[in-house]
Design a protein that fits this description.
This is Short-chain dehydrogenase. With about 280 residues, this protein is an alpha/beta fold. Helices cover about 45% and strands about 15% of the residues. It has one domain: NAD(P)-binding Rossmann-like Domain (Rossmann fold), CATH 3.40.50. Helix 2 links the parallel strand 2 and strand 3.
């Protein structure tokens, strides 16, 4: 009998790759997709991969309680749920002084409250041995200028998952965080091009923004292959015991996390400022 997994935000990036790989590895996957057009596109790709029998696309908006409730009504047919991958997310960017509070709220609705509501919905259908993977980011471990909406949401997700893991341990259900660095997915292109509150004309942040963008554009060729993240999720899903809370993945993320943890704050801050904002 195939195990059952739920993947949110399954139509692109990490979510699509994780969905495909889980199906290939023997899971029945409920693939949550928000937009109908994206669901149709995903269905074609699934058919081309000969995985239609194992992947069931469901309409799912993690910020809409009615949408989540509609999915919940179908879960009895799939229970027990072995794996929940809370992957749906978005990234808003901008300097803290200039970002609207509505944008912060929208960021948290997807990256934090959406995860919380999905977790509460699915947990009653889980038994001992089940796993919950919350897709965080290296940005959940270190703050960066112009990314406070995204960073703060991921910091919140970190604390939530740490508490969740301890609460569920007595019941044999394991929760863990996946911490990718920079990968070749749409989220950063979208956030910087479409969801970035750019400095207004005459803003004191214009120079900082220009230097940051120059650095980011120069680093794009070094972004990792997102299949590495999908393989990590599949590997961890097959393990009996998740010994760690956090699983870092990507070029340089372990080094950066270790440096931040060990260095005095003033030294770490100087490194960030020098790296991102130095004159070229």
């Amino acid at each position: 009998m195939r195990k059952t997994a739920i993947v949110t935000g399954a139509n692109s990036g990490f979510g699509k790759l994780i969905t495909m790989r889980l199906a290939e590895q023997g899971y029945t996957v409920i693939a949550g997709v928000r937009q109908e057009a994206n669901a149709k596109k995903l269905a074609k790709e699934i058919e081309q991969a000969s995985l239609s029998e194992y992947i069931h696309i469901e309409s799912l908006d993690v910020t809409d309680t009615q949408s989540i409730d509609a999915l919940k009504k179908k879960l009895d047919a799939y229970a027990p749920i072995t794996l929940l991958v809370n992957n749906a997310g978005t990234a808003y960017a901008g300097f803290a002084e200039e970002v609207s509070l509505d944008m912060y709220r929208q960021q948290f609705e997807v990256n934090v409250f959406g995860v919380m509501e999905m977790t509460q919905t699915v947990l009653p259908f889980m038994t001992s041995g089940a796993k919950i993977f919350n897709m965080s980011s290296i940005s959940g471990l270190m703050g960066m200028p112009a990314l406070s909406p995204y960073v703060s949401s991921k910091f919140a997700l970190e604390g939530y998952t740490e508490s969740l893991r301890i609460e569920l341990a007595p019941f044999g259900i394991q929760a863990a965080l996946i911490e990718p660095g920079s990968f070749q997915t749409n989220i950063w292109n979208t956030s910087m091009n479409e969801q970035m509150t750019q400095p207004a004309e005459g803003s004191k942040y214009t120079s900082i923004y220009q230097k940051m963008m120059a650095y980011i554009n120069a680093q794009k060729s070094n972004y990792g292959d997102p299949r590495e993240v999908a393989e990590l999720v599949v590997t961890l899903a097959g393990k009996k015991q998740l010994k760690q809370l956090r699983y870092l993945v990507g070029k340089g993320v372990r080094l950066s996390f270790t440096a931040k943890r060990l260095l005095p704050w003033n030294m770490w801050e100087k490194i960030i400022l020098r790296t991102l904002l130095s004159k070229k």
